[in-house]
């Protein structure tokens, strides 16, 4: 069955592509200026049939050729340093979005535009070429995704990247000052004070590793601290930081905008792992966002080292009086991991990791404590129930059930939050565990469709299994990870599909496809350097500084050759004047280590020293046309 499908799919794609390439070739062979007609729109015809996936198809993960997915998934790539876009329920990877690390396909880290986003050293080379992305979340409006941005962390170099969801590209990267091991990240969902701001304006970032502040390289760990940071979602500047006791791990935010929290596994502030697990209870640390911003406004902060970012004091010692406290430490069993907000807006749930439990914290009671109405902050704990071994992360179906990964048990446990609260309050007849499902193997993160929004719909659950062992053909010592898809629409969970994925994604979100409106063609005006007309092409010399302006229109570049002198400091600007969807060109310069692409109406530039004399055939690397191989230009560097 699947073989048959595959063949059909291949031939459908071939036919369509072939007919497009043929018309394009004919059109262009006439005048060597190509296709301005629109290609037959595969996407449009496919969209029509997409909703009917269930008909005669028992497994929705097996989409028919041409069918589109119902959901987008944004995946962190782990230490490949990228973000990935998947279609769900098929699990097909559609795109990798480069952000923190170079990418050979698009020339990310090669072009001047991408280097500017990534950050460079004084000599123009990239500041960093490695990253480790763990958590990705998107911007909100009214408790649901608004399709503007996604944010992702780099744990290695403590950077946050923003992805524009109109073009699915990274447009800003910020490095957090005085932070190491930036791990958890979460956008706020509305302003804590201003009711008109019902959308994301802040992103919270947890610092996992403690370091000396400022980092002077001392071995004396009593001087090490962690910071919790708030980044402005628009400017991407760091607004403020909080000095805390213990460390930050994952981050969650409340639907009313008032609270952010981070789970803490190292309240001991140990340097070695045995010290980090010495205490029986650690904490979930809450931040009162409005009070922190009042304190900053009132000038109650310090700064650290060269950083100008205001740092307020969130330590135990400075926050004993609930009525003025900026922070609250709720105790949670030994070395908790994820903290997740339930879609009804009521609870944060911390998974136990080293404890077989999940702790349910009632947010209204946390606010009561800040108001002086709850005597002990641990009174906000409304359930602490046993789930199984190694609980890590929790997702929701919007019907009152939670799904938690059990790393050591290799299971997902489905449990009912209300029943767990009843059980905890003394009703031992309350059965909170609803179902258990074995997964293959050792799950880390999981997430359900729309789970992190008020529109949690309880259809699909993806789980990132850290080990795949025997699930795929062996390919030597490095195994892929196993991303599994589970149907959670019924009482019992049903495993739908296994997908091998390149290591090693952590977190992901899954949302309805109509929440984003991607554009497939750029706007020329977004690029200040755009060469808007082929007639503007040419070489402009100013001493040793040379600017080469070039355009592309399938299947030709605007200049058939251009001349440089050895030693020239060259900036080459290429604008793709093709307006047709899916008509991307590449530009490679042999021996100069340069290759990048330009999408329809995109402009990109590269700078290099013309240090090697000779003839260099710059050619189009991205298949664009029947005459794609002929699409080249000569760069002649005179000795
Ligand atoms: Cu989100 Cu993987 Cu960084 Cu848990 S962490 S598994
Ligand atoms: Cu232009 Cu290939
Ligand atoms: Ca601990």
Structural summary, described in words:
The structure is a single chain. With 639 residues, the protein is mainly β. It has 7 helices and 40 strands. Strands 8, 9, 10, 11, 12 and 16 form a 6-stranded mixed sheet that branches. The longest helix is centred in the first third of the chain and has 30 residues, at 2-31. The termini are far apart. Mean pLDDT is 92; it is low at 1-56. The structure holds sulfanyl-(tricuprio-$l^{4}-sulfanyl)copper (K7E), dinuclear copper ion and calcium ion. Dinuclear copper ion (CUA) binds at residues 554-555, 585, 620, 622-625, 628, 631.
Chain-wise SSE layout:
Blueprint: H1 2-31, H2 42-49, E1 71-76, E2 83-88, E3 93-97, H3 112-118, E4 136-141, E5 144-154, E6 159-164, E7 169-175, E8 180-187, E9 202-209, E10 211-212, E11 224-232, E12 238-244, E13 251-253, E14 259-264, H4 273-276, E15 281-288, H5 289-297, E16 311-313, E17 327-333, E18 339-341, E19 347-351, E20 357-362, H6 363-370, E21 381-386, E22 391-396, E23 401-406, E24 411-416, H7 417-424, E25 433-438, E26 443-448, E27 460-465, E28 481-487, E29 494-501, E30 508-512, E31 538-542, E32 545-553, E33 556-557, E34 561-565, E35 569-576, E36 585-589, E37 594-598, E38 603-609, E39 614-619, E40 632-638
Parallel strand pairs: 12-16, 32-35, 34-40
Antiparallel strand pairs: 1-2, 1-30, 2-3, 4-5, 5-6, 6-7, 8-9, 9-11, 10-11, 11-12, 13-14, 14-15, 15-17, 18-19, 19-20, 20-21, 22-23, 23-24, 24-25, 26-27, 27-28, 28-29, 31-32, 32-33, 35-38, 36-37, 39-40
Bound molecules: sulfanyl-(tricuprio-$l^{4}-sulfanyl)copper (K7E), dinuclear copper ion and calcium ion.
Function: Nitrous-oxide reductase is part of a bacterial respiratory system which is activated under anaerobic conditions in the presence of nitrate or nitrous oxide.
Protein name: Nitrous-oxide reductase
Cofactor: Cu cation; Ca(2+)
């Amino acid at each position: 069955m699947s073989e048959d499908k595959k063949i059909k799919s291949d031939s459908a794609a071939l036919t369509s592509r072939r007919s497009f390439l043929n018309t394009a070739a004919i059109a262009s062979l006439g005048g060597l200026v190509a296709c301005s007609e629109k290609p037959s729109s595969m996407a449009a015809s496919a969209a029509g049939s997409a909703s009917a996936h269930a008909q005669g198809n028992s497994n929705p993960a097996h989409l028919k050729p041409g069918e589109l997915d119902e959901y987008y998934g944004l995946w962190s790539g782990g230490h490949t340093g990228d973000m990935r876009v998947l279609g769900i329920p098929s699990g097909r990877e559609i795109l990798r979005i480069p952000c923190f690390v170079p990418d050979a396909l698009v020339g990310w880290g090669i072009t001047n535009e991408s280097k500017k986003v990534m950050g460079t050293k004084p000599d123009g080379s990239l500041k960093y070429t490695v990253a480790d992305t763990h958590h990705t979340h998107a911007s909100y409006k009214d408790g649901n995704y608004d399709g503007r941005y996604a944010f992702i962390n780099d744990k290695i170099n403590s950077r946050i990247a923003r992805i524009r969801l109109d073009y699915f590209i990274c447009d800003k990267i910020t490095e957090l000052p005085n932070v190491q091991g930036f791990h958890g990240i979460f956008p706020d969902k509305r302003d804590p004070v201003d009711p008109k701001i019902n959308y994301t304006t802040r992103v919270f970032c947890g610092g996992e590793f403690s370091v000396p502040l400022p980092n002077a390289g001392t071995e004396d760990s009593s001087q090490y601290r962690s910071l919790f940071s708030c980044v402005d979602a628009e400017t991407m500047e760091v607004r403020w930081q909080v000095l805390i006791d213990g460390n930050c791990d994952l981050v969650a935010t409340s639907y009313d905008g008032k609270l952010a929290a981070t789970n803490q596994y190292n309240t001991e502030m140990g340097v070695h792992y045995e010290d980090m697990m010495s205490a029986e209870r650690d904490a979930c640390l809450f931040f009162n966002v409005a009070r922190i911003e009042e304190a900053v406004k009132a000038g109650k902060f310090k700064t650290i080292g060269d950083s100008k970012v205001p740092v307020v004091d969130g330590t135990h010692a400075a926050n004993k009086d609930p009525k003025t406290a900026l922070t609250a430490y709720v105790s949670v069993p030994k070395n908790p991991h994820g903290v997740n907000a339930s879609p009804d807006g009521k609870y944060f749930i911390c998974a136990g990791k080293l404890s077989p439990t999940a702790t349910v914290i009632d947010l209204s009671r946390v606010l009561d404590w800040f108001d002086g109405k709850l005597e002990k902050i641990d009174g906000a704990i409304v359930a602490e129930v046993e789930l199984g071994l190694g609980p890590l992360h929790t997702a929701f179906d919007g019907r009152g059930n939670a799904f938690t990964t059990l790393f050591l048990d290799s299971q997902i446990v489905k449990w009912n939050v209300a029943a767990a609260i009843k059980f905890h309050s003394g009703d031992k007849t309350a059965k909170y565990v609803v179902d258990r499902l074995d997964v293959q193997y050792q799950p880390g993160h999981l997430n359900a469709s729309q789970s992190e929004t008020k529109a949690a719909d309880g259809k699909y659950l993806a789980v990132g299994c850290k080990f795949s062992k025997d699930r795929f053909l062996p390919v030597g010592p490095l195994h892929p990870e196993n991303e599994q898809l589970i149907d959670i629409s019924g009482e019992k969970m049903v495993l739908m599909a296994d997908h091998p994925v390149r290591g090693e994604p952590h977190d992901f979100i899954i949302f309805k496809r109509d929440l984003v409106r991607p554009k497939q063609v750029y706007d020329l005006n977004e690029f200040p350097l755009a060469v808007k007309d082929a007639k503007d092409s040419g070489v402009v010399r100013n001493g040793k500084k040379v600017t080469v302006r070039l355009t592309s229109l399938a299947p030709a570049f605007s200049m058939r050759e251009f001349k440089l002198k050895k030693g020239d400091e060259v900036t080459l600007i290429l604008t793709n004047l093709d307006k047709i969807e899916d008509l991307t060109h590449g530009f490679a310069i042999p021996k100069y280590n340069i290759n990048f692409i330009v999408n329809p109406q995109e402009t990109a530039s590269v700078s290099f020293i013309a240090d090697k004399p000779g003839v260099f055939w710059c050619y189009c690397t991205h298949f664009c046309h029947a005459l794609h191989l002929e699409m080249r230009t000569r760069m002649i560097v005179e000795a």
